[in-house]
User: Fold this.
Amino acid sequence: MKQIKRTNVRFKEYAQNQLMLIPLSLDEMIESNHPVRIVNQVIDRIDLDPLFARFKGGGTSSYHPRMLLKVLVYSYLSNIYSGRRMEAALKENIHFMWISGMNQPDHNTINRFRGERLKGILKQVFRQVVELLVAEGLVSLKEAYLDGTKIESKANKYTFVWGRSIKTSKERIKKQMNDLAAEQRGI
Assistant:
């Protein structure tokens, strides 16, 4: 049997039972240009008074609506749509922990917030976000484009998007963007 010649191999320290696993502030672990910071800045700059009006006093305290909205927007940006997956991300993902301020609402709270509290207000919030992005020069309201690429899948290989449907959607989106641009100009 061959003997393995050992050299002076050095490994980085591995101490699983250390007292401190992460820095005192999660802020130190989030890159300065990470999308979670952009979501945080955008939602902090919009007016949420119509959303705050949906809450009545009394009873136990509620999670802050601004925090819940940030969690929802960042979840959608991260392709997470399930309330249960959002709940898990709030416990496992440092970006979600940071944007929620370590709050951990359960899936029922998240679903109730988006189903009841945001009902009828989401368009106003979206309008403010678009206006903010336009004011910052990050979005132009001149043209809207749709990608008409057809992608087949094995789940239902006979499903495709009709050209007329794409044209109708494009016209509807263009009208909405023109209306938004007109409102911004004060027309």
Remarks:
- The helical segments are 35-45, 49-52, 65-77, 83-92, 94-100, 107-117, 122-135, 163-185.
- The CA atoms of residues 175 and 181 lie 10 Å apart.
- The chain is about 50% helix and 0% strand.
- The mean pLDDT is 80.
